Amino acid sequence: MAENKNDNLDDDVSRRRFFTLMGLGVGWGGLLTALGGVGVGAARYMLPSVLYEPPTVFKIGTPDEYGIGVDTKLKKERQIWVVRNERGLYVMIAICRHLGCTPNFFQDQALFRCPCHGSIYDTRGNVLGGPAPRTLWRAGISLDPVDGQIVVDFNMRQDPDPKGTPEGLMVEEMGREVEPYFLKV
Amino acid sequence: MDDIWAYPYRLGIGIFFVVGTLVFMGAFIGIAVWLEKALKEDDTKK
Amino acid sequence: MLKLLQKIRSIVNQTQVFKSIFRHGYPDTDANRALVMFSNVILHLHPVRVRRGALKIKFTWCLGGLTFLFFILLAITGVILMFYYVPDTRRAYNDIRDLGTVIYFGSLFRAVHRWSAHAMVFSVWMHMTRVFMTGSYKPPREFNWVVGVILLVTTLVLSWTGYLLPWDQLALWAVTVGSKMAEATPFVGAAGPFGPELGRNSGNDMAFALLGGTVVGQSALLRFYVLHCLALPLITALFIAVHFWRIRKDGFSGPL
Amino acid sequence: MSENASESSKSLPKQGKLADLIKKTASEKIGPENTVLVWPNLVYLELIAIMVAVATILFLSLVSPAPLEELASADTTPNPTKAPWYFLGLQELLVYFDPWLAGMVLPTFIIIGLVLIPYVDPSPLGKGYYTFKERKFSMLGFGFGLALWWVLILIGVFFRGLDWSWYWPWDDPHVHQPAGAVKLVDLEILLQDFLGLNEAPLVTLGRYAVTMSNLLTWAMFLGFYAVGFTVPFLFFREFYRKLGFVRYNLVMFFFISMMGVPMKIFLRLLADIKYVLVTPWFKI
Is the distance from CB of A98 to CB of A106 less than 8 angstroms? Predict the structure, then answer.
């Protein structure tokens, strides 16, 4: 408090100065706090608490409907591919990991290729080329104990850290084939 | 490396980048020089 | 014939109605030519006199003014288009198709809106290039250059938000790609560097705030509609006003 | 401002240039004899410009109405999907850089860089008239950025086809290009194989396993900036002195970053390098 030293000399002025400063501090501080509060409130306001979006858990039939290889019949309706290999079955989400376009499957090349920026994936979801920074998602799946159908949870997504290799961005396959992202059926 | 001019066109695209950038820069500088001259001549004409 | 027209004009100029609107005679004398700049709200964007250099097309290429013209064309045609458009995912596409097929001149107004948008992006970009080339951003006009950059950004964002409204394939994918970029923003996007570390997920990140959901759907369409038709045009108009005000205050940078 | 001007006039090799300019500016006549009335001179010019522009827009609108594609559907992306032309530069950058960099950081850098221009270049030379001779560096720098942007737009408009592959005008646009032709590798893997470095991490910081080759890529990346900052400082003292410490560093940061963009593009094109720098959180 530098003002206090002058108390004897000019008590009145220093007190006035003190109250002025305090008033300014409280006033500006209050205004800025209020504005900040409004800003935070507005930002929170823009994040809706209730969503009216299509359901993200759905059934796709029994496992024996899907043979070895990539099945693209649910791509239009559900945005997924059902893939079966020698060990079992998994579901990949048909959303490119680069910028969200829908890749196309090329049966002859056994590759997924994205039309937007040319990302290339193999049937396991590994990135063989193009700008995609991560491998394709696999959705959480389980078997309904009542009717034996596969239940897909679209928002439950396996997203392991890929490793850069000379072939592309790879994830060790055995590590991916675990519950609940893989059905040994 | 069988044919360097075949897809994915490495060299071709590289050359296109360099030449394209140089052409655009040349046009940019060229327009500035032209307008500098043109506007000066306008002044002297009057 | 010419005499007759002049006579009619002089009579019209004398009427109370004409005087009440324009407050002075037709600008054919120096005094009235100065007065018109003071008393007309649109013309008073100009000074009364300019230096000769300001008339040279080779200097300005009319680019700033044309950008403003395109903005006005966009505002007018935009309001016209709004009469038939409902921002509802079930209706939007059909409304736009109706404009092109069954509504008189709907196709024309939509085409003018689209071409003006392309033209505005082009002319605002060229205007910036021109201002750089003539060094017109140098003191004391630094701040007006900053306002200009803001206007460039709002122009681009306006174009981008307008792209979603027809709800066709181009719309959906242009906005999907854009919202994925928002998701990849460092610190505030769920897929961006350090985003997950700071607790961002698909339910609280930047893309979620932009789309009002996790997919490009009804809430995204409504948000983009409000941004495109109300919020961004207002912001742009405000900055255009500041831009013009500063041009008048800072003066013309050209020679002579 | 005036301090700056006197400083640079002292240091300029052609001493007379700035002095001439100041003399010219001072003697410039802005009196009534050099001005004209806005009405009718400027107002009519504007009227003509407006009429020409509106006529052009109307003509274009009648010749080519606005297109409408198929109804939006999330399950099929049109192949290829092209943004409007003014965003194609950005879309093209997204091929070479991750979305956080190409979509967010680089555009932010461009905008901040544009905003900074008048504050890092307050030299009175070239104010209010076209010139190249008097401000070579700023014209070349801005021209380079502009050229790069337009070239990227051109590529997006004319040279990208199915699967966003490159198509020359003489290629058949309906045939897919071979997918397996490009195999992308990270720089650190190339270094590891080329120099025979140990794959085992030196240190592990949480998720981050720092290998020898990874450190080497850090050194190269930071070295690129270090060289960029140092070389002009050492060899173009005049340039540094005129700008001063803060301006010099701002200019050089944005300039080097701008030069880094085509360099990464060339590394990708010619050496198939996917990332030059890899961390668990971001990749460049």
Answer: no
Q: How far apart are CA C131 and CA C146, in angstroms?
A: 12
By CB neighbour count within 10 A (0-12 exposed, 13-18 middle, 19+ buried), where does C196 fall? middle
Q: Tell me what the mean pLDDT of segment A58-80 comes to.
A: 89
In single-letter form, the type of residue at position B37 comes to K
Cβ pair C119:D53 closer than 8 A: yes
Handedness of CA C172, C173, C178, C182 (dihedral sign): positive
Q: Which chains touch C (3 or more CB pairs under 8 A)?
A: A, B, D
Torsion angle defined by CA atoms of residues C80, C84, C85 and C86, in that order, rounded to the nearest 10 degrees: 140
Domain, as residue range, for A107: 57-176
In-domain check, residue A137: yes
pTM, full prediction? 0.89
Say whether residue B38 is in contact with chain C using an 8 A CB cutoff.
yes
Residues C183 and C211 in one domain: yes
Cβ neighbours of D12 (radius 10 Å): 15
Nearest chain C residue (CA) to A51: C213
- C217 beta partners: none
Tokens standing for residue D165:
């592959």
Question: Does the residue A135 lie in any domain?
Answer: yes
Q: How far is CA A113 from the centre of its chain?
A: 21
The pLDDT, as a whole number, for residue D230 is 93
Q: Which residues of A touch D (CB under 8 A)?
A: 75-77, 79, 94, 98-99, 101-104, 106, 109, 111, 113-118, 120, 128-131, 133, 161, 164-169
pLDDT in tens, D181-201: 677 888 988 898 888 888 888
Nearest to C138 among D84, D111, D127 (CB): D127
Q: Each residue of D130-140: pLDDT tens digit? A: 999 989 999 99
Give, in order, the Cα–Cα distances in Å from C256 to each of C46, C48, C77, D29, D46: 17, 16, 39, 7, 20
pLDDT under 50 in chain C at which residues? 256
Residue D245, number of CB atoms within 10 A of its CB: 8
ipTM for the whole complex: 0.88
Which candidate from C58, C133, C255 shows the least CB-CB separation from B38?
C58
Q: What is the pLDDT of residues D68-96, one digit of tens each?
A: 989 988 878 888 888 889 999 998 998 89
Q: A43 and chain C: CB distance < 8 Å anywhere?
A: yes
Domain containing residue C123: CATH number: 1.20.810.10
Residues in chain D, pLDDT under 50: 1-14
What is the structure's pLDDT at B29? 95
In angstroms, the separation between the Cα of residue C239 and the nearest Cα of chain A is 21
| Domain with C236 in it | 58-250
Size of interface B-D (CB pairs under 8 A): 68
* Residues of chain B positioned with their CB less than 8 A from the CB of C54: none
Q: Which of C244, C63, C70, C248 is nearest to C155 (CA)?
A: C70
